[in-house]
């Protein structure tokens, strides 16, 4: 646009020169007072030699009436072009200024974004370190849990094995319990018979004692002789005491039976067998009573109907050990269950109760042959 304005101004100056106008500061001035006066330049063009000069002069002369209008129009257009050029320059400067500000803002934004990104990257790096540490901790925890799981699995297998063994033992105990219950029922049946026979035996005992006193010592071993033969039993730590014509070997029930039962303790058979050996060697012909006693404690919750029932069963257990397993003749032996009727001491203390729980092997002076 600026170059076009310069071309228009140059053309106008040439035209003004042709019509006798010269430029001046602040506008244009004419070489004549009006456009009607002759222009020396025009005359020069008119007087120019040759046809070209004549044609130029004629053309200039013909342009005079139109030049005034064209010059004003050109001048106005030139001024407008200058104004537009100035506005465009101002706009260009403004745009350059805006562009400069924009570039500064863009640079600031880029720097801010760089700082923000750097901050974010730093935070991400820190967060990553934190997560790595957490992951490391979690991995350690996971490994620890894995080790614990392996240990628990091993413990679980051991527990399952123990459970299987316990179930096996439980089944075995259940079977044994069933067998013991059956045996108990059979024993109870035997005890009922034994209890009935015990009454008869008691009567027989009284008759035997009366007969012994009446016989005046016929075929009766002297008490002192019976006592001397029991040194082997005394050596076992058992109590041996003389009761008139009788000699009593005392077996504490707590050393022979499980508490509150007629079941022999492990090892008690050997003790009964040693007593049986002495009886077999020294009193193979004597009448021997197996008499059981207990304390005054109640038997609530047990299988026994009363204390006589319990002591009869205990006497039968010792009787079986002596007769069936130790070859003592059954006709030598009889059983009695006295219950708590004959305490040795008071049942007021635990020690007294323990002493009253006993099985007595009673050796009578009468022999088996005397009954015939």
Q: Beta-strand percentage?
A: 5-15%
What share of the residues lie within helices?
Answer: 55-70%
- Helix/strand-derived category reads alpha+beta
Classify the oligomer: single chain
| Low-pLDDT windows of residues | 18-40, 211-223
End-to-end separation in angstroms reads 170 Å
Tell me, briefly, the overall form: rod-shaped
Rg over CA atoms, rounded to whole Å, is 73 Å
Number of helices: 9
Remind me, CATH topology of the domain at 216-371? 60s Ribosomal Protein L30, Chain: A
CATH class of the domain at 216-371: Alpha Beta
Query: How many beta-strand elements?
Result: 7
Write out the CATH superfamily name of the domain at 216-371: OmpA-like domain
Average pLDDT metric: 76
Helix-strand sequence: HEEHHHHEEHHEHEHE
CATH architectural label of the domain at 216-371: 2-Layer Sandwich
- Main beta-sheet strand count, sense and barrel state: 5 strands, mixed
The spatial strand order of the largest sheet comes to 3-4-7-5-6
């Amino acid at each position: 646009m600026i170059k076009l304005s310069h071309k228009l101004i140059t053309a106008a100056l040439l035209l003004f020169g042709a019509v006798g106008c010269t430029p001046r500061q602040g506008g244009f001035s004419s070489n004549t007072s009006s456009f009607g006066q002759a222009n020396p330049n025009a005359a020069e063009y008119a007087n120019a030699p040759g046809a070209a000069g004549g044609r130029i002069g004629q053309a200039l002369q013909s342009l005079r009436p139109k030049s005034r209008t064209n010059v004003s129009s050109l001048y106005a257009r030139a001024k407008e072009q200058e104004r537009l050029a100035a506005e465009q320059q101002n706009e260009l400067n403004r745009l350059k200024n805006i562009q400069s500000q924009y570039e500064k803002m863009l640079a600031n934004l880029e720097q801010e974004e760089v700082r923000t990104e750097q901050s974010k990257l730093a935070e991400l790096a820190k967060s990553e370190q934190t997560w790595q540490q957490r992951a490391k901790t979690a991995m350690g925890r996971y490994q620890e849990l894995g080790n614990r799981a392996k240990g628990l699995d091993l413990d679980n297998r051991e527990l399952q094995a123990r459970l299987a063994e316990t179930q096996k033992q439980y089944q075995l105990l259940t079977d044994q319990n069933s067998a013991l219950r059956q045996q108990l029922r059979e024993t109870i049946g035997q005890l009922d018979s034994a209890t009935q026979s015990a009454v008869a035996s008691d009567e027989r005992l009284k008759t035997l004692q009366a007969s012994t006193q009446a016989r005046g010592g016929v075929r009766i071993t002297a008490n002192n002789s019976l006592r001397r033969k029991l040194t082997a039993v005394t050596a076992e730590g058992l109590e041996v005491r003389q009761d008139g014509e009788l000699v009593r070997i005392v077996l504490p029930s707590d050393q022979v039976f499980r508490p509150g039962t007629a079941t022999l303790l492990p090892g008690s058979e050997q003790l009964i067998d040693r007593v049986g050996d002495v009886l077999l060697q020294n009193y193979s012909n004597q009448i021997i009573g197996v008499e059981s006693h207990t304390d005054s404690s109640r038997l609530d919750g047990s299988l026994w109907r009363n204390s006589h029932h319990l002591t009869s069963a205990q006497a039968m257990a010792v009787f079986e050990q002596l007769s069936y397993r130790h070859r003592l003749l059954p006709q030598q032996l009889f059983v009695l269950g006295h219950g708590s009727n004959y305490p040795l001491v008071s049942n007021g203390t635990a020690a007294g109760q323990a002493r009253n729980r006993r099985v007595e092997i009673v050796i009578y002076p009468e022999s088996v042959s005397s009954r015939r």
